[in-house]
């Protein structure tokens, strides 16, 4: 029986996860485009504490090392250099590893520390003592990249032009790539940098993914290439199913900048110190203009939560809720004649094309039957779609999609689906008609794969 069960699983996997694209080779270096400009210059990607935690996780000595010349810790040196020159601190970390393996080396030599970033110490020899010392190296290594970006005309390599590097034709496709070749005018060095960056910092989880820290159990929503912490379980379950959680190691989470936390349950009523009451509607807070509107719309005073103004300061303001507002938290209306069901919110109706969507998202809402004339008072919006974070599959084909920012993104392969930790049990089998509501987005790859389009 065990063998048959295993065989059934394999057959099911082969069917439901048939390749959606040819299998890709492992990490492929694109010499024309090493890093994006945004990656190289995102100087707010890590705090001092995050840099320190990252260094500790890699096992080298730098997390606890104090530079004897400037008497500063390495996390502080990296952070301050990144802020001064507006260069990503992740670049400094990768540079230290690329040049001297200092992020992972538990017992580096003094020579490794003295020439930590390789600045002023060419491969041909003749290192300049002016640049010697760990703190000095970090400052010059990070500062040099900023100088190259700000003064491009002073150097041999120019963005948009083609050069021969180590016998290979290389076209500098963006400013970041040009600056990196000015610093290291060799293919191997830039390939090493790109490989380390991909391993440590490439962001593979699409917006809408729910990641759970394997160590402390915290849950994060990936959104806008940042991670947003759910401050409570009620904040999580009011928006998502816990079945969608993907367990990951802390270093996977460290790839994402920390965003605004998600503190309250969806549709919470929040009252600030001045007495104003707001309705939390997904990612906006909507001011309720008067207590008369509050009462007429059926809100419960006992459900109001007192918060500080600063608690909601980072949440965007949405449309005000007035006496004229209809269904501020949404309702279901059904055409008596046709049987069509609409989700109505804020004076607008949205068609629901299938019972499947009703069962998924509106189980607790009562359907009210109305006439076609009553429905006409509400302008019609776009049909209701599947929410971000859902895994979808057509009932007629095997491709699995992940819904992210409204688009359906296919997985590059079965291996990518498995490696990223998505679950087959969460796949929703639906119709092509409902799938068509979501335009096809970019292919989802895993940490060990890159898109074939990145090689030219």
Provide the gyration radius in Å. Answer: 27 Å
Q: What does the average pLDDT come to?
A: 89
State the oligomer: single chain
Q: Figure out the total of helices.
A: 16
Distance between the termini: 50 Å
| Poorly predicted parts | 1-26, 448-456
Count of spatially separate domains: 5
Structural class of the secondary elements?
A: alpha/beta
Beta-strand percentage? 15-25%
Described by strand count, sense and barrel closure, the largest sheet is: 5 strands, mixed
The helix content, as a percent range, equals 25-40%
Task: Give an overview in words.
- There is one protein chain.
- With 456 residues, the protein is α/β, with parallel strands linked by helices.
- 30% of the residues lie in helices and 18% in strands.
- Helix 3 packs across helix 4 and helix 4 runs parallel beside helix 7.
- The model is unreliable at 1-26 and 448-456 (pLDDT under 50).
- The chain has 5 domains: 1-27 and 385-456, 2-Layer Sandwich (TTHA1013/TTHA0281-like), CATH 3.30.2390; 37-201, no CATH class; 210-258, no CATH class; 269-311, no CATH class; 331-376, no CATH class.
- It is built from 16 helices and 21 strands.
- The protein has a 5-stranded mixed β-sheet with strand order 8-5-6-7-9. It has a 4-stranded mixed β-sheet with strand order 12-11-10-13, with no helix packed on it.
